[in-house]
Specification:
The chain is mainly beta. The protein has strands at residues 7-10, 17-22, 26-33, 38-45, 49-51.
């Protein structure tokens, strides 16, 4: 379902995490815990994760002039 390098999140919410390894049913993820200023790593069932969708930024068409 997910592959190494995908950015995922728990379906219930939480930080964006990078997938670092996978099995058929689980994904090991790495994320930066802002409160403790450390990287965390844990394994989650695939069924609990969803892909994070990023909006592309388009600075040229924002309609504002920067004079």
């Amino acid at each position: 379902m997910f592959k190494i390098g995908d950015v995922v999140q728990m379906k219930s919410g939480g930080p964006a995490m990078s997938v670092v390894s996978t099995t058929d049913e689980k994904a090991e993820c790495l994320w930066f815990a802002e409160g403790s200023e450390t990287f965390q790593r844990d394994t989650f069932p695939m069924a609990c994760l969803e892909a994070v969708e990023f909006e592309e930024e388009d600075d040229e068409d924002d309609g504002e002039d920067e004079d």
